[in-house]
Amino acid sequence: MKIVEHSGLAPFTSLMDEMEQDPSIPWGMARVKKNYLRSITDQAFILATTPVLQEADLIHIFFIDGKRTFLVWKSPQKSIYKRLRALIGTTLLQPGSKIQASVVVTPIDPQTRNEELKAAIKSGIEALDGLFDNVQESATAEENEYDHNSTSNTQGGPAALVATSAQIEHYQQLCKEKRYRKQLHILVVEDQIFSQKLLCDVLRSVRAHNNNETPLVDAVDGIQEAWKLYLKKAPDISFVDLGLSDGSGHTLARAMKELDPGATIIIVTANNYEEELSVARQNNVDGFIGKPYNKKQIFDCIERYVGTFKPSRKR
Amino acid sequence: MVSPINLDNLHSMTDGNAEFEREIFRLFLVSSREAMASLRLSCDQNNNEMWGKEAHALKGISLNLGADALGALCKHAQESAAAPQADKEIMLAALEHELTRVHEALQPFM
Questions:
Q1: What is the CA A200 to chain-centroid distance, rounded?
Q2: Per-residue pLDDT band at A149 (split at 50, 70, 90)
């Protein structure tokens, strides 16, 4: 991956010419409304978005001013912006912001709209902004169309975490049976083996709080695997770490809640900062436990769940 | 000298299961050594993102173990991911010193 930074729009037109010369090379583009983001430097923005940007062969970033930044990338993955939007939505928005990430990150196809972009650039930054504003709604519609076509009868969750209709049906069926399960089903999402083992051990010891049944505890170390297991088993409670090997636990928690607002999700993290807590609140998670935690904090989560959803089992 | 670890909370979580504790202490030794090696590499390569991630990872397991001083050093390192390399060298030395103390303190339990 190569990142080229620009402090103005001057090189933009020659880049558009380059795209025009060889249309077979796929390019993508997005505008990020920087005024909705936390106050961060341009370098911090690059660092924070690197996990997504590194999927591209080449990235041009146009840092215009405090209001907007434009990204143009060369990559077979034209839809990088979806992951960029998910990442920005979970980690870079201003604390407490209610704005949707889809408003902050707007994609445009620079190859099909090459002429329009060139004309707008010629007219100035306001015209370019106007072009993005005008296409925002249609871009969302195109994206929905893309989602529908590419994932075949899918719905729910951010772009990276999707579910088929069959998976959703299976999940919903399991949800109906949750109340009558003999054992609690718990999902632990933690990529540090030390912390994973410790938490699983504590959870397996809660049988006295669960009708003397040892809970079934599944442990995984990444959000993709967790999402699959979540759909497959519909766990009663999910304990989710934030800094995971393949993404943020916030992304997973958001997808889980979007699919099932009644799901019980507890964030467990060593990053007990206000910013993280704020994102967790936005995702409507059911608990936020900072490391180091103690046994009582974990047991209390189980007690609350059993007391609320399985009253007949509470001792 | 004050012990670098306080295992009271951990003993409570494991119900004093010595065999299980030995297993997770071994995991701590391995994971913390790996994290230190990655921190060293990220410092040498000037990779701030990797530095922050590894400091965060070491912080999490240190706090859960009861190694509060090591956890505090990791927190400082994580929040100083953009610090110059010379500063990181100093942080690495402090981390290595404290981690050695933690490993030594765990030896009687192994």
A1: 25
A2: very low
Q: Are A62 and A6 in contact (CB under 8 A)?
A: yes
Mean pLDDT computed over B18-45: 93
| Mean per-residue pLDDT over chain B, rounded | 94
Spatial distance between the Cα atoms of A141 and A85, rounded to a whole number of angstroms: 16
- A135-153 in b/e form (b: 16+ CB < 10 A) is bbeebeeebeeebeeeeee
Please identify which residue in the block is written with the tokens 């607002």: A261
ipTM, two decimals, is: 0.93
Shortest distance between the Cα of B1 and any Cα of chain A, in A, equals: 23
Residue contact A192–B60, C-beta within 8 A: yes
CA angle, A17 then A51 then B44, to 5°: 110
Contacts of A208 (CB under 8 A, 6+ apart): A315
What CATH number does the domain located at B18-109 have?
Answer: 1.20.120
Query: Cβ A194–B14 below 8 Å, yes or no?
Result: no
Which residue of A195, A197, A206, A246 is the best one to mutate when testing the B interface, meaning the one whose CB has the most B CBs within 10 A?
A195
Q: What are the residue boundaries of the structural domains of chain B, listed by start?
A: 18-109
- Interface test with chain A among B10, B14, B64, B73, by most A beta carbons within 10 Å: B64
Spatial contact of B76 and B91, defined as CB atoms under 8 Å apart:
yes
Tokens describing residue B76: 């400082």
Residue A151 has pLDDT above 70, yes or no: no
CATH number corresponding to A2-151: 3.30.70
Give the pLDDT confidence score for residue A35 in this predicted structure: 85
Structure tokens at B5: 């670890």
Q: Which class does domain A163-313 fall in?
A: alpha beta
Cα angle at A98 between A147 and A262, to 5 degrees? 65
Residue A232's pLDDT is what? 94
Residue A270 and residue B60 in contact, taking contact as beta carbons nearer than 8 Å: yes
Q: Provide the shortest C-alpha distance from residue B90 to chain A (in Å).
A: 23
